[in-house]
Amino acid sequence: MSSHQIMSADEIGRALVRIGHEVVERHGGARGLALVGIERRGPVLAQRIAAAIEAREGVAVPVVALDVSPYRDDRDGAIDADATAAIPPSPLRPYDPAATTVVLVDDVLFTGRTVRAALDALVDHGRPAAVRLAVLIDRGHRELPIRADHVGKNVPTALVDRVTLELADGQGGERVLLVRPDPEA
How far is CA 182 from CA 33, 96, 157, in A? Predict the structure, then answer.
């Protein structure tokens, strides 16, 4: 495997600030917005976008983490009926879904299946006024008709490539890597 950096920590930070500005501009302000980060890295990115919005607009935008694993249809061949039946009712949220534009936030958009699962999960917990999608990286290869409204960076990839976001954890810096398998493998 070979890898090379496609975004540095500074580039990640600038992209998230730009996404925050785009979200506010498209919505016409920061009121009536909520950011929903798709687990695992989406909540961290959503928090950073919310901080950028608050710094510029003076409005605290609610951030919620969303685990979509019970809604996935591409794990083990089918939706796990036992898992979806066991989904608890929506916890108290810091926003009213019907009066809120929800911006789903994820790290990498690839096939679109994670976003489809997130849309199902959102609707199960109340229909938002509108839903938009913000991603740090769009690598193409969609299997579903899903596109991001706000993109940090478009990165052309091969199907066998992987895009990995490394966030600061005290062990080192942040970066986005493009990992390619060795041609001989």
Answer: 44, 49, 14
